[in-house]
Amino acid sequence: MLNKLTLKSQWIIPLAFFICFFNTNILVAQRNLVPNNSFENIDSCNFSVRDISVAKPWTGPYENYTEIFNECAPQKTGGTIPYDTFCKCYFQYPRTGKGFAGIYTIQNYGSNYRDYLQVKLSDSMMNGKCYLAYFYANTFDDSFFSVSNNLAASFSDTALPVLPFGSNLIFPSVAHLTPHIQLPGNPIISDTFHWIPIAGIYFAHGGEKYIVIGNFKDDTLTDTIKRVRTFVQIDAAYFIDDVFVLEANAYAGKDTAISKGDSVFIGIEQVPGVQNSWYVNGNLIKQNTGGMWVQPQQTTTYILQSTICNTTYYDTVVVSVKNVGIGQLANNKEQIKVYPNPANTNLTISQLANLKMIEVYDVVGRKLEDLKMSRLGNEIQIQVSDLAAGIYFIKATDEKGNVKNAKFVKE
Fold it and tell me: Exposure check for the chain: N or C terminus, fewer CB within 10 A?
């Protein structure tokens, strides 16, 4: 038997755990419903025009002058990045990866020409569910272009029709969809350097299958600012990157390892309407932010509490700090295994040679002192029948002070 003295620890590592009130515990994987969300996957680098359809399954509804930009784009298309080798009329790096998309929010003011980005979600939205949605935008920095407001995302049960690329020269049209995701106050977006997050909460009626990004208002209802006042035609264009749609939950990020002195970003963008609080060892360290840069001096667990649509969720991320390089950490394949997982009565932990101590923690960082444990060889069995349903975290330390972690679900 392992006694309580064997279970003492100097630091706390709770685990990722999601809880929903109304007497229901839920565990939801953080899966982005937007395929090819960063426009990285393209049919070929040999495209002759900047048609967004090469970044399947994205399409450009209606007039369809919606464009794709990529580091490998042929120079003749003008879709190269970070700068256009054809006209030298913009300079921008992707927010992530090697590509992004581009749309007109206004083209030739008064004519209602529009570009839209559209993609089918990997799953239809569910009735009564809340979703977190956000994407990033950056202004096309050619001085002859204007800037505008009304850039938004909308969710739809049906797809907008798609015409051949470049049809906007013939068929001007505005998709009068509801702007579900938009900057608070709907300001004009004029930043040519930073990628601006446009985020919000969407409450689904059920069956929504598509996300569409663009300007859903007529020109007369769109505010603009000219960059060069002597230029007559008003055009406004924006780059789009990293589109996310997530079922409402807390998202602290993936466990990661850094070298001492390095920093790492944890969490996601702050979404308006979401109440976020970050904790370490039970102490509140940050509020009203979905993500932040951290530079821990020792291995630290950050707990995120998010309240969304009157439901509170929890998640944690462990940032391991080592005095070795990241490459060496990546090559360390030693793990511990737990089974069955989920567990109901007993949980077995294996591959624990040279074990010195083992600890179990709940979501608020409390070490569970009274668990019954028994050991046979390199395996330990823990009685978990008295634990509340949810997720728990195991910390196993060997004689050399090396720590290995595992998570398990109690049904």
Answer: N
For 69, the domain range is 52-247
Q: Is position 36 within any domain?
A: no
The β-bridge partners of 265 are: 293
133-144: pLDDT as tens digits: 999 999 987 767
CA 197 to chain centroid, in Å, comes to 11
Are 163 and 146 part of one and the same domain?
yes
- Looking from the CA of 72 toward its CB, the CA atoms found within 13 Å total 13
pLDDT tens track for 88-112: 667 788 998 889 999 999 887 778 8
236/263 same-domain check: no
Is 106 within the bounds of a domain? yes
Write the pLDDT tens digit of every residue in 246-268.
Answer: 999 999 998 988 888 888 899 99
The two three-digit tokens of residue 297, written as one number: 């001096």
User: Does the global pTM surpass 0.85?
Assistant: no
Q: Are 303 and 365 in contact (CB under 8 A)?
A: yes
SS3 at position 4: helix
Give the residue among 78, 74, 103, 80 at the shortest CA–CA distance from 93. 80
Neighbours of 74 (CB within 10 A): 18
Exposed/middle/buried for 206, CB within 10 Å: 0-12, 13-18, 19+?
A: exposed
Residue type at position 88 = K
